[in-house]
Automatic annotation (TrEMBL):
It comes from the Bacteria. One of its GO terms (molecular function) is transferase activity. It comes from Cereibacter azotoformans. The lineage of its organism: Bacteria, Pseudomonadati, Pseudomonadota, Alphaproteobacteria, Rhodobacterales. The keyword Transferase applies. Keywords: Transferase. This is Putative nucleotidyltransferase-like protein.
Length: 378
């Protein structure tokens, strides 16, 4: 989801300080930490803040568990719960179908995020609404995987920008004409503006099998799940988007690591060029739960060490705050690139070329030189 100014209309004009503390406490309690829930909040602002951070259902296991001062948002939480159950149930069915399609075609693949990950991390598939099935394949297998999806009735989306999505963002979207979940077919992870993993094939090689619908679905391994969650945090940070949902996924992923996996993680991050990405995201986890949970997740030196936990937390869960003094994107990329000039220039070039390509394609669409429906020259 790409956020716009309109998405933040409900929370602008509020400092959200009390609501941020209430949200942090609710998230801590969801992880089993002892955190008192403050009652002095604006319930609707709290709900909107949680919704934007994709953790609305973390506010209480059941609407009846809400503190009396929060009771006004109980109907909205119940509606979100029913909506999430329906949406994620459909995504689960398509997840199983897509896995069977790829397995029958002999295409190595893994799924990540989505309701299957929610089962692994939180014990159930309906903690966060999702309308996507995220699928990773090798770049060499991308044409064949796309053909398999098309034969099963899935149609490429956003045809006019498909070339940009595939070349720069490393993914293409498919959906059936009748609707339902979008299948995000990835051959890379992370978007321009932040370092990408060096070897996507390693995520495929370390796949684990998760039982589902009488079969199995290849899922990314526990350590790789941490890296993907960290990528999500950093992507949101660069784009100034709220991301408590990604922070919770990272905390849960770290909590689920075995001792051997936890020992492996820093080395895997270094091999992928993601040490700084993991360090910043891990510090974000500690900043979110600062004072509410043990500080045990930080990994490596903080690449933006001058940002205090309170400021970093604000940037990650309330980025619409006009008082925030954001570091320039070039400084963020420099820090995430390990302050290595060659690496920084490579990532900066990738970001600029991506933006130029996107603007060029949109210009062709506006001028009528590119068909919106087919994505081909008129």
């Amino acid at each position: 989801m790409t956020f716009t100014a309109a998405h933040f209309a409900a929370v602008r004009g509020h400092d959200c300080l009390s609501e941020a503390e209430a949200l942090r406490a609710a998230l801590a309690r969801a992880f089993g930490d002892a955190a008192p829930l403050p009652g002095q909040v604006l319930p609707q602002v709290l709900f909107d803040m949680a919704r934007l951070n994709k953790v609305g259902l973390f506010l209480a296991p059941r609407p009846a568990d809400l503190p009396p001062a929060w009771a006004a948002i109980a109907p909205q939480i119940e509606s979100m719960r029913l909506y999430t159950a329906a949406r994620n149930g459909h995504s689960l069915r398509v997840s199983g179908e897509v896995a069977r399609l790829m397995q029958a075609a002999g295409i190595a693949h893994v799924q990540f995020k989505g309701p299957l990950q929610q089962i692994a991390l939180y014990g159930g598939p309906c903690w966060k609404p999702t309308g996507d099935v995220d699928l990773l394949v090798a770049e060499a297998d991308l044409p064949r995987a796309g053909a398999v999806l098309r034969e099963a009735g899935f149609v490429p989306q956003e045809a006019e920008l498909a070339d940009w999505w595939t070349k720069h963002l490393g993914e293409q979207h498919y959906r059936r004409p009748t609707g339902g979940p979008v299948v995000d077919l990835h051959h890379r992870l992370q978007q321009p503006g932040a370092p990408r993993p060096r070897r996507t094939a390693d995520f495929l090689a370390r796949a684990t099998l998760m039982p589902h619908e009488g079969g199995t679905v290849p899922m990314i391994s526990g350590p790789d799940r941490c890296l993907v969650a960290a990528i999500g945090v950093v992507k949101a940070f660069v784009a100034h988007e709220p991301c408590a949902g990604h922070l919770c996924d990272l905390r849960a992923s770290l909590d689920h690591l075995s001792a051997a996996e936890a020992a492996m993680l820093p080395g895997l991050a270094a091999e992928q060029g993601l040490s700084e990405t993991l360090a910043l995201a891990s510090r974000g986890v500690d900043a979110l739960f600062d004072g509410l949970a043990p500080r045990r997740h930080a990994t490596g030196a903080h690449p933006l060490a001058d940002l205090s936990p309170a400021i970093l937390r604000r940037m990650l869960i309330a980025p619409w705050d006009p008082a925030l003094d954001w570091p320039r994107r070039s400084r963020i990329l420099w820090a995430l690139s390990g302050r290595q000039p060659a690496r920084y220039l490579r990532e900066e070039l990738a970001a600029k070329s991506s933006e130029i390509h996107r603007i060029w394609l949109k210009g062709l669409v506006r001028s009528g030189l590119l068909s919106r429906r087919e994505g081909t020259a008129a």
